[in-house]
Structures are given as structure tokens and as C-alpha cells.
Amino acid sequence: MPLPTARTVADLRAQVRAWKAEGLSVGLVPTMGALHEGHLSLVRLAGQRADRVVASLFVNPTQFAPHEDFAAYPRDEARDARLLAEAGCALLYAPTVPAMYAPDASTTVAVAGVSEPLDGAARPGHFAGVATVVTKLLLQAAPDVAVFGEKDYQQLVVIRRLVRDLDIPVEIIGGPTMRAPDGLALSSRNAYLSAAERAQAPALHQALVQAANRLRAGEAVARVEADAANALRAAGFSRIDYVEARNADSLERLGPGLLAGPARLLAAAVLGKTRLIDNLAV
Ligand code: PAF
Hints:
By secondary structure, this protein is of the alpha/beta class. Helix content is 38%, strand content 19%.
């Protein structure tokens, strides 16, 4: 049976209201489509935490810079809907751009601090686009829980912060990163890699694993970060946006010496024309 699909906020809310009237809890998994096993693991996780799972599919134009891949971003709703249904999703929410944004929409959610370094510095405006659309999705679907992948770790931190700061009544759950057998984090953008680039790409995860081990062994943060960046250059990455260890909650820089408290290693680097990101708990 085809997956029921809501195209408007009103249709989405009617279904969620009906479920809640039956006493059922609702989980939301926001996506931009081009689904892979990583997304489906988030749908299954939402299914363990809520009675009904809604997945949204919306390629959000406001989180892409003009030179980025909004137009080229892979789109195949029929395939995505089939995969979502198999993973236990009960409703697809796939609004059009005009249904999501009024032509004169003028409100933006800006999360200071945690959205400024790393991808916030490399992709100006990106997190304002993410924070605004995620706030809208949470207000539209009013889920009990919402699940986001740890693959986009900074995004997860930004979303936890805005939910706390704006008192949005939802529990945010992070789902672990799914990886190919060679360690490459699953990502819709892996589809852009040539065969040769795909063979080089696992170096990103390997560099993070090695750096995390050295940090755990007590080596100096700055030295470990510099060596990881050099390893990526040696593996064929043409631009390293960052390889940094940061506080896992605040994303603040760590002191130059030993680790104190939970830290996260985060990296973004370009292979050919494709920008890859990854991260690891330390
Ligand atoms: O992670 C994504 O796919 C997107 O940034 C999200 C959370 C669906 C918002 O557009």
C-alpha cells in the first residue's frame, strides 16, 4: 500500500491530531530525501520511541548558499516513500516550497554561539536555514519526539539548543551514524563521489579514529588536529575546512593541553567537488 502523504500543514496536523486523540504518541524524522540506511535507522529508532512515525521530506532552499547544490540535490520521492513505508513510517510529510514559505516570510531562527564555528563559519547562513525550517517542522507536526542523525553533529547541537531556548515541547533524540564497511559515514552526498574518490573517502573516518585514540592517550589537542589535517591532505582531500576537537555540548574550543570532559572531534573536507563531513566522540 502506498505511504499516505500530507502536502500541507493542515493535512499533517489533522492526521497528528487524530493519532493523539487515540492516545498515540508521534515521532518525527526530518529529512531532505535521497534516503539511505542512515535515515532508515532514524525512522526505526523513532518507531521504538513513538507509536506513529512521520517522516518529512523537504529539500530546504534556505539552508543552501547560492553556489551550493540545491538544484542538483538528488530527488526521488517515490523511492523514498517506499523505503520509509518498509522502515515502519506511517505518514510522509512532503510540502512544496510555497506551502512551507510564504512569499513574504520574514522570520528567521538564529542560534548564536553553537551555530557560529565549524560549518557555521564554512557555510554562512546554513544553520539559520536549518534552525528556521526545523522550528517550523516541530511546530507543524507537534511530535512527542524528533530524531536527528549524529552524522550532522553540529546540527544536532543547534537543534537541542533552540528547542531548549524556545521551550518547544519535544524530546530530541540523536541517532548513531551509520557507516559503510570501510568506515565512510553514509550520506546522500556520497552519490557525488567518483569511483576513485569513493576509494579515498574512508580516509576521513580513519583520520578521526586515529586522532581520537591519540587524544584519549593524552596527546596535545593542537598537535593531533594538525596531524589529522595533514593525513587528509596526504589522502587526496583538496581543502580541509576544519578538523577540530570541541566540547561535546557547547562546541567550544578545547584548551591546548589535555581533554577535560566529553569532547567531539569534527571534520569537514573536500574531495574532488564533494564536501564530506564526519565526527566522532572522544
Ligand atoms: O539533516 C537534514 O537532512 C536537514 O538539515 C534537515 C534537518 C532535514 C533540515 O532541513
